[in-house]
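Extended Data, record Spermidine/putrescine transport system ATP-binding protein
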Amino acid sequence: MSAPVVSIRNLSHAFGALTVLHELSLDIQPGEYVVLLGPSGSGKTTLLSILGGFLQPTNGAVLIDGRDCTHMPPAKRPTTTVFQDYALFPHMSVGANVAFGLRMNGVAKAERQRLARETLALVGLKQVLDKRPHQLSGGQRQRVALARALVMKPRLLLLDEPLGALDLGLRRQMQEELKAIQKRVGTAFVHVTHDQEEAMALADLLLVMQDGRIVDQGNPERVYTQPSTRFSATFMGENTLIDAEVTEISGTTATLRTALGTLALDRPGIRKGKATLTVRPENLRLGTAPSGRVSLGSGEVAESVFQGSYRKAVVRTGSGGDILLKLPVDMPVRIGERVEVHAEPRHIGLLQE
């Protein structure tokens, strides 16, 4: 593996007596799209601000290409930032907005105009060079802000909820465009969002944050299907959590006792004691468990609601709590019907925090 673009070492930050980041350490690889995901107050924007030089950490260090940039001001470090409100100059043309940073760096007029045109073409906006920001749509303004950041050829591009002001359809379109642009330019991106779908669509590396800590990290599929903590299991979409206890271990196979019955799972590194099973609603099915699938017990259908692309159902198991399912629309279930619930072993997460 090549040397990281960014190394964060034991980073902490406090506002007075309130600590908002706790001893974070992280490496960001060249060309990696990193997404910081978490609720308000989790510390993701504070971390982004420290990476951009807008905040000084209380402790720790930020290294970019091996150089200590911890106390370097924003204009001096090899980073640029795209803000949620775009921060475009309304009195300047689009071309002048994109070229502004180059002008501040003393780049000759002809060269900065050439680079502005090239970068606007990269984001699909070469036709708006002479327009003013107020003449553009929200999605176009977002792409102008992205071009203004990319034209500086940063080693690290920071995006602070850049799609938050867009409507749903445009947001999804811009997710695809952002990912495609990032892969073309090869710059490492760090993107802040509280939108789980956006995070999974964009991230190579997904960092789930809670109370100033990174509580889960990995590729989006792993974090979603096999979360490392109860928080990431519930924050990353809907999930059913089942309390369990590991009573026996034979090789990598664990026997677990739950309120829904006893089951066996093959999991390396497991230990005896308390555990939590997690299973996503779309990975559950009804009926007698066929060979190779794990029964999660039975219960009574308490809810069955048509949701367009799927049917949402809740099975009430009594002492085992409720199990949430997303079923095919052509699988009607009746309220009060007694059913059995099962899943594939690979779709059952197991937490031991």
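Summary. Helices lie at 44-52, 94-104, 109-122, 138-150, 168-185, 196-202, 220-225, 230-235.
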